[in-house]
Amino acid sequence: MPFAVLSKRAGFLLASGRVCRSIQAMARRNSAGMSDSVYGDLLERARAVVPRLETNLHKGQAGRIGIVGGSVEYTGAPYFAGISALRVGADLVHVFCCQSAAMVIKSYSPDLIVHPVLDDHCAMEKMEKWLDRLHVLVVGPGLGREHAVLENVAALLKHCRHSGIKVILDADALHLLTLDFSLARDLSGAILTPNAVEYRRLFGETKSLNDLREIIGKEVTVLEKGLSDKIYDVTLTNQVYYVPPGGSARRCGGQGDLLSGALATFYCWALNCKQETNPALVACFAASILTKHCNEEAFREKGRGTLCCDMIEQIPKIFRKHFEHF
């Protein structure tokens, strides 16, 4: 859908006329970085990576995703990320969490495979036998900041660097990077998903692609979340892509977790598509517009009481409308 239409819808859905006009003005400014032709090209490429549903497929071929996170305080985030990955179309999701979070996450859904190992002193030994089976890891949702857990995650990222597993870093995994960014620098195929505040903590006021490349290296993509999500592609095109604004003024918790889970599935598919030359870019674009449309549709029904679970319920409808093969 062209960005002009999305901008109008965003304005229509927001609470008051004055706010609507203000957001619409920002939307017009922010969407200037993506033309209709670029939008259309990325949308077609996103559709092209979606695997067709065929009867000869086996369980796991459409995506095996790992979610690394879940602590005594935060059990919702890994659930939102994992169930979103499944709702987009992944076959299997494994959640690697702290022992205190495992039973709670298991009780949310029987569709998630839960491993209570993240705060174990032998965490890597227990995770390693599963990691090579996975296509993409999302590290960070509900992770928390316990020292022992962060040490285990640091060891996990070092393992991924050597094994080649593709990693999406979100939430408290980004906090870990503020302590030691070498864990992500030049980590092949890694995607970072900071919001505006997390972006500043990681990179200060850096907006130049050349300056950003000096920090992250040439192998990492950054998706900065906001009114207009920005995709910093230093790996191939050396461009910043401004995803058209959308959604609503409702900022419920869990939207970033939904995005990271959706991103994992799209990224798995894009990596497996031989015709796609820039999997990270296409996956970031697809997850961004899916999340915004889910927020828009959920807000249309629930208004200011919209929750992340309401957005997740919209995933099948939005996916069919924008990405499904017919």
Adjacency order of strands in the biggest sheet: 3-2-1-4-5-6-7-8-9
**Beta-strand share of residues:** 5-15%
Q: What general outline do the C-alpha atoms trace?
A: globular
Question: Distance between the terminal alpha carbons, to the nearest Å?
Answer: 18 Å
Q: Name the helicity range.
A: 40-55%
Q: By helix and strand content, what is the structural category?
A: alpha/beta
The largest sheet is:
9 strands, mixed
Task: List segments where confidence is low: pLDDT < 50 over at least 5 consecutive residues.
Answer: 1-32
- Compute the number of strand runs: 9
Mean pLDDT: 91
The radius of gyration over CA amounts to 19 Å
Q: SSE order in H/E notation?
A: HHHEHEHEHEHEHEHHEEEHHHH
Give me the number of helical elements: 14
- Looking at the chains present, what oligomeric state does this protein adopt? single chain
